[in-house]
Amino acid sequence: MSTLTVELNRESPHDVSVASTFSTETRFTIELVNTGEPIHVHLHLDDTLSRVAALATNNHFLGRKETVTVEIPVSPRKEPTSGRLKIVTGHGSEIAYTTITVSPPATGTQRVAVDEKLSQPKPKPNPDPEPSVLTVLSNQLSNQSALTVLFAVFAVLLALGIGLSIGDPLVLVGSLVVIIGAVGAIVIANSW
Q1: Residues paired with 88 in a beta bridge
Q2: pTM of this prediction?
Q3: What is d(CA 85, CA 53) in angstroms, rounded to the nearest whole number?
Q4: What sections of the protein cross the membrane (predicted)?
Q5: Cα–Cα–Cα angle for 153, 159, 162, nearest 5°?
């Protein structure tokens, strides 16, 4: 993949240094190299160049001494296409252009060497051993679910202890409500 290097802040603030021409056959990258203080950069492909290439993002911010790589995909074509890339810094105070030529890929019979190992099937990997019950439970219960279960068990034991020690039917009914609520909380916690 070809790379077009753009140096920023080299000579002075907002300075742009780039080759006047660039040629490629395939997708390419624009490497924005900031040699100074933080800077905003705007990239723009002219109409002709944007027919065969595309910028995903036009505006870029580079921190101090930062390098950013911008990938430019190129669509297939039969004829060479030339256009200009505009590079703007300092909110328009500095503008630089480079002419980019995108040529069709070279044709010819290119042979690709293929290793004989590729024609043989790959051995099947050993199946993973069955996980233990503890592993399955720990995977299913998150920390929050485990805390809910612990709280519910505590509430059930407390309600049973109080209900049985007092022996009043109204207290036993209250204990049953707490038990039903705790079981419901456990079910809801495990279903999420």
Answers
A1: 42, 95
A2: 0.55
A3: 11
A4: 146-164, 170-189
A5: 140
